[in-house]
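Entry 14. Structure prediction run on the chain below.
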Amino acid sequence: MKQHPIALLALLSTSIAQVPQDYEQCIDDVVLKSSTCNPNDVELCRERCGVLNTQFLLDKCCAHDGVTASILAYEPNELWVDRLNDYNLCTGAKVRVDYVDGGEDAMPRALAVDIGNGFEDGQGIYDAYIAHTPWLPSIYDGLKNLSAYIEKNAKFVDIMDIDQAARDASAYGGEMVAFPYDTNYFAMGWRQDVFKLHSASYRETYNEELAVPKTIEELVLVSERLNGLDHNGDGEPDWGFCVSPQTKVFYAFLAPVMQTHLRECKTNTDGEFHCGVGERTGQNLFFDVDTFEPLIHNEGFKYAFDLYNRFVRASNCKPGGICDFKAAFSDGRCAGAIALPETLTEMLLEDGEYTIQPRLDEEGNVVWAPGQNLSDGEYWGRRSIFPGSDKVLDWTTPGRPLVDCVGMKCPLANDGINYSPFFGEGADVYAINGRQTKPQAADAIWDLIMWFSEVEPIYKPLNGMYRTSQLAAEKPKVAIDWNDIMAEDLRQVLMHEFKSDDMGGNPSQDLMLRAVDEYIYALDIEMHQKLIFADVSDGGLYNENDPSKSLDAVKDKRVYDANYQRFISDLEARFDDINGRQDGGALRQLILWRESLDLQPKKDEQDVCSDLLATNQAIFEKMNCISKVNLQSLCDTQKDDIEEYSPGLCVSVNSSDQTTTIVIVLCSVLGGGFLVLVLLFVFHQFRKMRAIAQGHEQLMEATLNESIRSLRQLDYPLHLVRGDDFVAEGKLLRHEVLRNTHRLTVLDSLSDVDSFIDVGKHIVFLSHQWTSFSCPDAYGAQYKAMCISLKELARESGWDESLKDVFVWADFCCLPQANASIQSLAVRSLAAYAASATYFIIVAPDTKHADLDEVCDIDTYQKRMWTRAEQVCHSMRNGTEGMFITKGEELPLAKVEHDFFKESLRVFEGELTCCRLEHKGMSVCDRQCLVIPLLGLFGELYRASVEGGKGGNIAALSSVEAFLTEIEMHQDSVFPPTFSRTTWRKNKQFVEEIVLFGDLIDRMKARVKGGGGFAIDDDNTNTMTTIGSDYVRHGADLVRNDLVRHGATMIRHGAGQGIRY
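Output returned:
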């Protein structure tokens, strides 16, 4: 029941749109039929739904009749009334908008209260929101994934048409959680009349032309030179470029210095760089993506700061940091300005809010006005791209020095200048509540968003330029009433700003992270209040008594640098304090930062800490990684790193050859008198080696025991989604979302599984490949096929077609995604999960991979290691009788061929993302995770064959023999003894031969043939515990004789026969 709690109502102001008087009673009844909406009245529908000459709503007449939905916004706009009335009249919906009291500043808190977080639900009053992207990091997991909507409406809005910076800021983990309607970037306004006024004197004084700045150094130099000149004819000295000093303006200066390319670049035969298809570089303006150290300890940061400090000095700012640049510009005292687009427009438009006002005499006559000295075809208020830099940070060299912008150091340069427009505040977006909003309301809101994307900007409350296609017209529609010069300036700027990385663009993103306001505030205080505008006597750079004597980076280098270094130290301390106050500390912030940048590979806490152990042990300590990793467990893969960190922790073992060498050397040097001591040493070495050999044997036996246990117990409970809930969700939901909303059925043991099936429940295992590196089903095609196949299976099997007795297992829904440690426990139980399934459906429709230029289909499905593993885990225990394939909506559910298992049996020849990424940041390969469950499966299969041959039902073992024959013929490819693993440590590539199965298969055979069956030596003390000697399975007639089950004596699975266990 949706309530209107006082906590959020206190934040709200007014609401608008047509709302029924009984809204409080009807808000819970999402579908309320309207008596005035008639979809059969063609003429009326055409009239209402073709409003404003748009097409999108023409087939939406009464589509949302009676659906109630509410939007929370922060900025009132009278156009909401007309547009919502238009939309509601056409669709029959009842969409309303409320404004948060306190405006933009209060909106982040209102979002958190209404949406909630990962630990508790929000109040859920609103279905959708108007937001800035920097507000999303704290709430994105509570927003609705819009990817399926976007795919469905691709003919109306091409997602790739939207500005890349806005797209990136609206996506998390490869999923679009918001939809942009505007984007914010810093640009430069410059006065053409001022430049023309001073051009001759400038040329005479500096022996060069006064030109529009192309680099930030030129911008500062021009601003300094124009500072003190008279721009408006009043005889008073005016300023250079005006600015409102704030951290985001500083980041606009920093961006072209710090960021040279978002993706790795390749060089073609002509020597040209292409940087749009490689892996992401992790370059950004804020934090190191491996250590989360702030990117402030480098020459690039200081270079940008020095220029920014000079720029502020030449601006309109007065002592104490008073910088009213809007008023200064309006008085005609600025040679130009740096601002976000909306503010800049209001400055440059002839009738803009902050435009330059003519100066009048006492009688009201104009004595001066901007542009008086210009000719036809010229305009005083011009707009240009924000300048770039001919100096850039070298990310590939230790220490990251500042270098000239040339070659591979600066692959996207234009005439030796690196441009990187900074998208301060990211984008303005629509977002939909993903926790409480009902599907009908979400659909109504989405159609409103799509319609707004078609409505001309001047007719809608939320307007802006955010799509490349909007620049195709000779005059951008948002600038339809502007003069031609201003409109063309805007178009040229946007064509540059909207370049994606595959088109040679290099957009810099704002900080999208929890506590973003705290980080920005810390920089503002330390940089502006305590350094730039602080008096020299207080450790600042400014001389309040005589501003001309403020500290100069060159003339006063020693004091200037000392004060700058104090600023850097204090800023780092404040950042550390902020990190310490976040849940999970800096380590969790790092993981979230990498996710925000969509970096591959994905890393959990153990991955990060393992990397830091190898590359930066000081940060390893600082992040308290010792509490996150077990050092001894890493001795096999990071022995040298661990020995460096904790000498002696990993015991080194000398080989027998080394021992022999030592004996010979000692005998020759020390003589026969010491032979007894040497022999004694050798004896002790022999005992140590024997102990090691015994330890190895115990380890092998423990591995065999663990593999058997993995089939008899669940290390992590089996989680299932009820069929009707699964179909109703509309997409694959993340495990944690389902868990937190109590939509998972949990079975804690295998006996619980048997009892569950005994009462007529059906477990269906859905196996599919991921269509993105970070999203299981990027376009929703697999989910659609899953739902169709479930319904078809129910119909053909004679089950209740409501699917209330069908329970689904799908990896993204049923395996933990957020906690890697718990996830590994669940993976160890994968064999038991697959074996417990009544049916197994391979879902492989043709669909595009979101991150690769390839199509995912049944062929690519069969190439993946994990999908092969799932097939093998099911078929080795149940045969192939209950296995099906679905290849899409148009193709029927089909049974697999009886020999389908042969290809999938070669699990370890399958492809893995971790191997493709060369295990960067990973301590183990995914292959190693499957050794124990597959070893156990083989053992059960082999035992069934041996014991069946001793007098059991031989005919029933034909499927077992088919598996074993295939394994026997190709044992080393089915169960590889070793594998080659490529890894990176300390920025160096290593190729190692790693033991996988070794001789474990032969050991398992020997144990079974020796008559021990599946007796387990629990403590390696020769005391055996019998877990059971029977082959445990569910489903088809694979093995009938002497089988045991997890609990009861007989079950019936679906349409199969009664099977005695």
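Confidence is low (pLDDT under 50) at residues 1-35, 652-667, 949-956, 1017-1061.
Filed with the rest of this week's runs.
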